[in-house]
Amino acid sequence: MGRSLFILGFLAVFAFCSSEFIISAELNVKNGVLQTQKVFITPSKIKFNSANFYYFCEIPNPNSILSDLEFTKVYKDKILDCFIGKNTRTKQSITKNGNIVTKRTQLRILPTRFIIDFKPNSAIISVLNYGTQNENSYRRR
User: Fold this and answer.
1) Is 105:43 a contact under the CB 8 Å cutoff?
2) How far apart are the first and last CA of the chain?
3) DSSP secondary-structure letter at 47?
């Protein structure tokens, strides 16, 4: 009984611990001032075991004892900076009412799957390669 409970607990830990994450974000700017910023980084529920990921960016991590989930919370802004140019949609509008001109910009980062690999004093962010092979791609271990 104890052995089967241990095995069940062991499998549950590995089934729900994930280093794959999904990021999506929305930023709204009005007249050059950031109005709203919504950033969502969530652990992936479905893992791609044989997927190809390619190097995307590197973030210095002096706190090498952080777990994956803690790292995403502490370094959320730096992770967002990595993804600003990746898989984004921009919508701009300019309205004029008399002498007042209002410029609005909406930037959306579409949901993108990524993994975090920790190296000494840094973390490597790698993104799922949906298309053809990249020279920097590698198979997930």
Assistant:
1) no
2) 32
3) -
* CB atoms inside a 10 Å sphere around CB 57: 16
| Angle at the Cα of 83 from the Cα atoms of 133 and 17, rounded to 5 degrees | 80
> Is 91:106 a contact under the CB 8 Å cutoff?
yes
Residue 37: how many other CB atoms lie within 10 Å: 13
Q: Is 45 helix (H, G, I), strand (E, B) or coil?
A: coil
User: Which residues sit opposite 88 in a β-bridge?
Assistant: 109
Measure the CA–CA gap between 65 and 58, rounded to whole angstroms: 17
For 92-140, write each residue's pLDDT tens digit.
999 999 999 999 999 999 898 888 888 888 888 888 876 644 444 444 4
Nearest Cα to Cα of residue 25 among 83, 64, 103: 83
Give pTM, 2 decimals. 0.70
The three-state secondary structure class of 76 is: helix
d(C-alpha 2, C-alpha 7), whole Å = 9
Are 43 and 18 in contact by the 8 Å Cβ rule? The answer is yes
